[in-house]
Write a structure and sequence with these properties.
This protein is 60% helix and 6% strand. The protein is of the alpha+beta class. Strand 3 (59-67) and strand 4 form a beta hairpin. It is globular, with a radius of gyration of 27 Å.
Length: 559
């Protein structure tokens, strides 16, 4: 049984510094403000999971995970997209930290005269807000916040500075939203989105610095739609026009997913109206030619997918299959239809759609493995065990994927392990991050480690990682199994740390420090701490010319 985390262990992941590192300085400041405003409620912890509701421009749920491996968090807001640690995650973490310390958690603020209800829940605004700013003045500020770079911006520092200057405008627009009519807010949001995406035509934001601005505008668009006194039919028609402007491609990223993110805006009547518009649009489409290019199939799927989701939620297999019949000459659509049939245990229909998948156009044999996997499932149901086992073996030989290995019979599994082991060279006594092996050796060793981990043989996986170079992802998976074995995990941590430092950039240095901090928290004896000190001395000596990394080590107490 794993011992629960101590108070100090939990607090180390909840410090301002650590939260700012996870979210970024701007998102941390906004999350702290949300917490101080009392926007966090319904805080609950079960095991390593912490869930809270955070009142932003809408009501959002932040989902945190706190364990000895660290703190992680996602949110349903557009800025997080179920991936990034956003301001709502920061606010939830601060509320949990206060509760952990026995401090009074900031109580939800009283609903002000400008407060509103989103999705049936009151969204608290500050009781005192800034003086109202005229929409014309806000438009001027939006123009100034999103200039169009004449020569483009391509360096991280340039792009980061550009969007950090725009973020205060987003915060201002969010605070002004209750003072604007929904029509005024909608126009300003649309104008800001136009400026933002026009600017992005000459900005390389591969680092995602725009996400706060983009997420705030998406939230405010939903808020404006929620407040509009339009009929359900009008809202449905408007959102449909937004979704399919310019074939739904040029503005695809401007808004939160339509209609999913707007379900509360539309209500049952509006969703029915939206789906009716899509159904009429779908019925009017001709059958696409076999081998259609991506642009055509993309348009078809964007119209059909909400209708499919609705039919699946109703459990209406016939409605699902009727939607797929129009595109039965597209192999991937046939594959999806087979999966729906299997889920409903409609085996005769599954066999029919598998035949259509075989007939569907695929000049390159694309998705053949998917078709074969479904055939294995069908044959297993039909008790054709030998045929299913042989086909599954052929699938694994083609894909080398772990999920396909796990479906193999035991005799084939042993053949895989023996074959991979035979391809490895004589083991070396030590492995360092600078060791370089041929790509195929790294691949074979990685596959073996993945197999051993899947079968619960941690020691066998560790032995391979000690002798051969495997991918960082595989090493991290193994470390998750060794969190209570620091004497075995140090060597693996050092592999990852050296790899991060070798990137010679700020992100790599910070990731390396994070790994050191994570390892330090696993230590339980003075001998283990002494071993870490020797490793730190070696790191400092090897990387002494990387002054920024050494500075981060000093700052984190690795002296």
């Amino acid at each position: 049984m794993i011992d629960p985390m101590t108070h100090d262990e939990e607090m180390s992941f909840l410090s301002d510094k650590h939260l700012a590192r996870l979210a970024g300085g701007g998102a941390f400041a906004r999350g702290e403000k949300y917490y101080r405003q009392g926007r966090v409620r319904d805080l609950d912890r079960t095991g390593s999971r912490i869930v809270a509701v955070v009142d932003g421009s809408q009501v959002y749920r932040a989902d945190l995970t706190l364990s000895r491996n660290g703190l992680d968090g996602v949110c349903i807001c557009p800025a997080s997209g179920g991936f990034d640690f956003c301001k709502h995650c920061v606010a939830a973490a601060l509320a949990y930290r206060a509760e952990l310390n026995g401090e009074p958690v900031e109580a939800p603020a009283e609903k002000s005269s400008s407060g509103k209800s989103v999705g049936g829940k009151a969204v608290a605004r500050e009781s005192t807000v800034e003086a109202a700013i005229a929409p014309a003045e806000l438009k001027k500020r939006i123009t100034a916040a999103f200039p169009f770079p004449r020569d483009g911006l391509f360096r991280y520092a340039q792009v980061s500075t550009y969007f950090s200057r725009a973020e205060p405008l987003m915060d201002l627009l969010e605070s002004q939203a209750p003072l604007l009519s929904p029509e005024q807010l909608l126009k300003l949001v649309d104008y800001a989105q136009t400026r933002l995406y026009r600017a992005l035509e000459t900005i390389d934001d591969s680092g995602g610095f725009r996400l706060h601005c983009e997420g705030t505008l998406k939230e405010l668009h939903i808020e404006a739609m929620q407040r509009l006194d339009w009929s359900a039919q009008h809202k449905a028609q408007y959102l449909h026009e937004l979704s399919f402007a310019h074939d739904g491609r040029e503005r695809e990223d401007w808004y939160a997913p339509i209609p999913e993110a707007y379900r509360e805006v539309l209500g049952d009547e509006g969703m029915a109206a939206f789906l009716a518009i899509l159904r009429q649009q779908w019925d009017a489409l001709p059958k696409p030619p076999a081998g259609s290019d991506w642009s055509l199939t993309f348009r078809f799927s964007r119209i059909r997918d909400p209708l499919l989701e609705d039919a699946r939620q109703r459990g209406d297999l016939e409605a699902v299959l009727s939607l797929y019949r129009k595109t039965a000459n597209q192999r991937m659509d046939c594959i999806h239809a087979v999966r729906d049939c299997i889920e409903h245990q409609a085996w005769d229909l599954a066999e029919h759609w598998l035949e259509l998948a075989d007939e569907a156009h695929s000049s390159t044999g694309r998705w053949q493995a998917d078709v074969d996997r479904l055939r294995v499932t069908l044959w297993e149901h039909q008790e054709k065990a030998d045929e299913a086992a042989e086909l599954q073996w052929r699938i694994y030989q083609q894909t080398r994927e772990l999920s396909d290995y796990q479906r193999l019979d035991s005799q084939y599994r042993q053949r895989v392990v023996d074959g991979l082991s035979a391809k490895l060279p004589e083991p070396q006594s030590t492995i360092s991050c600078s060791s370089r092996f041929p790509l195929n050796i790294c691949r074979e060793a990685t596959q073996l480690v993945e197999i051993h981990l899947a079968e619960g043989d941690t020691d066998a996986a560790l032995a391979i990682c000690r002798q051969w170079h495997t991918t960082p992802t595989t090493v991290r998976q193994l470390l998750a199994r060794l969190k209570d074995r620091p004497e075995d995990s140090l060597e693996l941590f050092l592999q990852l740390i050296r790899g991060e430092v070798e990137q010679a950039n700020d992100r790599g240095y910070r990731n390396a420090i994070g790994l050191l901090e994570r390892y330090r928290k696993t230590l339980k004896t003075s001998t283990q701490q002494e071993t870490l000190r020797h490793a730190i001395d070696e790191l400092r000596e090897v990387h002494q010319k990387k002054r920024k990394f050494i500075g981060y080590m000093d700052e984190a107490g690795f002296e």
